[in-house]
TrEMBL record:
Keywords: Acyltransferase, Transferase. This is GNAT family N-acetyltransferase. Pfam families: Acetyltransf_1. Residues 3-149 form the N-acetyltransferase domain. GO terms for molecular function: acyltransferase activity. CDD domains: NAT_SF. InterPro entries: Acyl_CoA_acyltransferase, Bact_Acetyltransf, GNAT_dom. It comes from the Bacteria. PANTHER family: AMINOALKYLPHOSPHONATE N-ACETYLTRANSFERASE-RELATED-RELATED. Its EC number is 2.3.1.-.
Amino acid sequence: MRVALRPATEGDREFCFRLHEAAMGAYVAAVWGWDEREQRAYHDRGFAPGRWRIVTVDGADAGMLSVEHRPGSLYLGRIELLPEFQGRGIGSLLITDLIADADRHEVAVELDVLAVNTRARALYRRLGFREVRRHGDGDRKITMRYHGTRTGTR
């Protein structure tokens, strides 16, 4: 299995929306309810082809990744994979690469995850992330942080 990243383009707008619906729709619905028009507007406001990367597996579009460089950390803004590519180690591989990059730069990795997304939370914990705080209405979101080997204890 060959996993690669390519820059997102304007032509990936619809793929990324449908990906978000497939990967996160049930979680969004559980927290806020899935309103197609509202979710489309949210996606259109946030879609950033210059910053997003498309995850490919053996040449096929499989997901997306968004990482922001912040003072003292790399922020994993989004990682989403189509359901047929989940559970195959792809997310772990991408996050492990991000952790290695953070270690090289002596910064932490941070992310936010919906509290209802227990599968993602379990993955992040297995990879060494720890809960930092809960926030949002009813503590719906959890900020998690990975402190690498060079930046202190995990």
